[in-house]
Amino acid sequence: MSAPTQTPGLRYPSNKKTIYDRNLNRSKNAELSRAAFAYLFVEMISYAQKNVKDISALEKRLNTQGYPLGLRLLDLLLSRSPSPLSSIRPTRIITLLQFIGNTLWRHLFARAADALERSESDAGQYMIFDNDPMVNSYISLPREMRGFNAAAYVAGVIEGFCDGAGFATFKEEVLEREEILNRGGG
After folding, report:
1. What sign has the CA pseudo-torsion 76, 149, 133, 32?
2. Second label for 182, Cα 20 to 30 Å away, from 50, 95, 118, 156?
3. Is 115 helix (H, G, I), strand (E, B) or coil?
């Protein structure tokens, strides 16, 4: 008995590839248009603005919205890394911050952060610089909200990312652990 012939249709596409042959990471290179991003982000801000009395409460709410995304992005970016060595979770502060400034920033904004600096006044404070933050460029604010910074959402993403990596946003225990590792212990 001969095998039945396969004709193109729903079950067997004409190119002989099924859904199982597709690349699982195919959406990794897909980009969201800036207009779609602007629309979604402005809607997120207007949603966060409901029942908020002042700017600091609005920024806190945006920070809270970004936190769960940061928790999930760590696992996603590590699982998508091309080499086994780069898929290891960062265990040092500087390594984690470089990962955030390069890999996370590229994933979120399609480019690396402009600079990473350590504060001279506070040893536990680091600053990631973005000279042209996309989250602030599409927002028009009324005069009474002049001090509002929409990058609070990105700060929430970074906070979730750090917490997911085991760096509880640089609490004293994390800084003590880093000092011990710098001295060659542990």
Report:
1. positive
2. 156
3. strand
Q: State the DSSP code for 181.
A: H
Task: Kindly state the tokens that stand for 50.
Answer: 């409901």
Architecture of domain 32-182: 2-Layer Sandwich (3.30)
Q: Are 141 and 80 in contact (CB under 8 A)?
A: no
Q: What six digits make up the tokens of 168?
A: 């509880």
Per-residue confidence (pLDDT) for residue 81, from 0 to 100: 75
Residues 61-78 as b or e (16 or more Cβ within 10 Å = b): bbbebbbebbbebbeebb
Query: Is the pLDDT confidence value at 29 over 70?
Result: no
Average pLDDT of every residue of the chain: 80
Q: Domain extents for the chain?
A: 32-182
Q: pTM of the entire structure?
A: 0.74
User: Residue ranges of the alpha helices (H) in 87-171?
Assistant: 93-99, 105-109, 134-137, 152-164
